[in-house]
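Worked example

This section walks through a single chain of length 261. The input is the sequence exactly as stored; nothing has been trimmed or padded.
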Amino acid sequence: MPPPRAWLFDLDGTLLRGRRPLAGAGSLLEALSREGAVLGVLTNNSALPRSDHALRLRRLGLPVGEEAIFTSGRFAALELARLYPQARWYLLGTPALAAELGALGLRLSEEEPDGVLVGFDTTLSYARLARACRLLEGGVLFFATHPDPACPEEGGLLPDAGALLALLERATGRRPEGVFGKPNPAFLAHALGELGLEPEACLYVGDRLEVDVPFALEAGVRAALVLTGATRPEDPRIREVQAQGVLVVRDLGELKEHLWP
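Given that input, the structure is written out below as tokens.
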């Protein structure tokens, strides 16, 4: 296929695993930069603000500008501030996420919130889960930054926002009114608008067959699937997405070979 003008990447499982870049990531990004391609990263990892993600990538030799990094947490903050400008939110999330939400104008409250917002939370306690359950039983708004059940790390998987959602849904019988991150195509449309791109000019590369592929295709963007993260090579659904025109590759090095054989 001819190289697209813009390349958008998932983060964990596609460019990185934990604290190390995945095979072929550096050489592909370097080649794309030489070609003058637009680069972007869209991640459901809401634990960190995009400035920290940019710093982490730069330290690993994967330079992507902060303005080209889009997180589910940032998108959630922008959308909730637009939809509910006066609302106050009880957050299940990291202190870094809380700081980013506040900087973007979202009002957080421990005492009398109007809604519960669930993100990736490494500081979680039973008391905070119980408080969230009581609030949801009382009828407050219910949203989440993203639905991923687990986050891949070098040593294995960590429970993510989707796991917390499953617990809260089972405990309260409520489902969130909205989830902002992938596979919600509005997240990708937001990134395209910020970067000034048309969908047909882009390729989106991710590792989750059931998340990243529909995320791209429903937004009108071409998709590539790398088998370095959540999707196993023997997954029978791979043939189905290949029939839809999705390029499936072993890793980013193989993706580069498709472009510059």
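What to look for: The mean pLDDT is 93.
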